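Give me the fold.
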Amino acid sequence: MSGNVNRQILLVEKPSGKLGAQHFRMVEGAIPEPKDGEALLRVRYISLDAANRAWMHGATYRSAVETNTVMAGGAIAEVISSRAPELAPGDIVFGDTGWQDYAAVPAKQLTKMPKMEPLTHLLSVFGIAGLTAYFGLLEIGKPKAGETVVVSAAAGSVGSIVGQIARIKGCRVVGIAGGKDKCNWLTSDLGFDAAVDYKDGAVFKALRAAAPNGIDVYFDNVGGDILEACLPQMNNYGRIACCGAISQYDGVPSAHGPRGVPGLIVVKRLIMQGFIVMDFMESRDRALSDLQAWVSSGKLKVQEDVIAGLENTPKALIGLLAGENRGKRMIKL
């Protein structure tokens, strides 16, 4: 990497249909100078998330990404220089650096991370993905031993961890994923009791066979038709943790989904709750200590999908939205 160049990937056009490589452009700029209260960061690993696509539509829990600006994205980065007392060179932090080699970010917007090997775990199991799975399942889903937990996008970064935590808690776990390979991986490697391949089409029927006693907890990453297939199979007093709606993010969202919801929610007394992982950050230490214990004992397997090169970030996000990845996808700089 040349000493004084900052490569950046800009969002040059907001997609109206599916996201494509043409919506991005790589440029070179100067390495920024940190202002008072800021740290200069060298980005090490960029997190790729379905939410990146949602940010292009408009404001969500963060402001929208505007055209001709650096594409937003969370990353693990190293402090190069600091004009904030709480950070020193060599510190490892998580923050929204955007898709670039270097960023100057206010210290108050950064989370100091422990130094650990591999650093990638700070983005996957001990990062937003692991914490989202932990809090969404345990605080919103509230699974009890013996219950049936169903998770969609089960081979993804969050879903693969949700299913394993549900197993640790003594539940029957059914994953919904795309393709035979992913489904086999869930049952053979991650210990899921059953897996449903949504690409086969007959999700409702396959789910009924995989969860003959109904569904107590549904962890929803996709919305749309899959949520519609799960709702009628929920047991009384079932809980639905709404984490994301990836089916609605890229391209033209389906015009419906799910239909017949209000009646089902009333009759079955369902609780359906959306959440953002930031809501639970005061309990982060407890979550991390559980996650670290499960990983070190081998109860929780970590699957990561690391792709090298900033220039590959757009293609890697497009692939993530198409379901290419297994586990947490990230870019190594």
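Residues 5-124+303-332 form a domain with the Quinone Oxidoreductase; Chain A, domain 1 fold (CATH 3.90.180.10).
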